[in-house]
Amino acid sequence: MKNVVRKICFVLALAALGLFFVKDCQAQMYDYERMSSAFVNMLDAATNYLADNFEVINTNKAKVGEPLPKGELYSYKTGITIKFVSQGKDKLGPRSGYNKPDKWEAEQLKKFTKIQYPKGVGYGEVELVSDYNMVYRYIYPLYIEHKCLQCHGDPKRSPTGDGKDITGFPMENFKLGELSGAISLTFPIE
What's this model's pTM, rounded to 2 decimal places? Predict the structure, then answer.
């Protein structure tokens, strides 16, 4: 009888420990979700600022639209990577190879194009990178707004008259509300 009671106590202790672990994991997931959302809001604010000041920024031949340098300082210090991903439109593909989505990002972009997927809602999950390393991946869809069309809209409305935007890229002929890409974030889990 004592062995049965010990086994029951052991099983209950393991169950309680497992429940604690699950709750702790859920809390960590919530924290990663909140951090991801904060990053997206910050990047969205920066994007809006750039779009609102488009004319001024480009008067000094700024390299708007250029990708961040590889190994940018923020990623180096934190391990967090932030990337804009896009499959581009039609035959044009993404504007830069840096923007090409990896397999996971491409799968999520497909989900975002489905009519039933709610606009403005990101997606995140934990991914096992190796036997002992996990990362939290979050991706947030971006849709074409009016301000985006000056560079990504109808090539017939090109500001340079040659079907290209002012940074020299071909205009993709995106329409208002179309999925243009996403912000992809990766957080190391320690």
Answer: 0.67
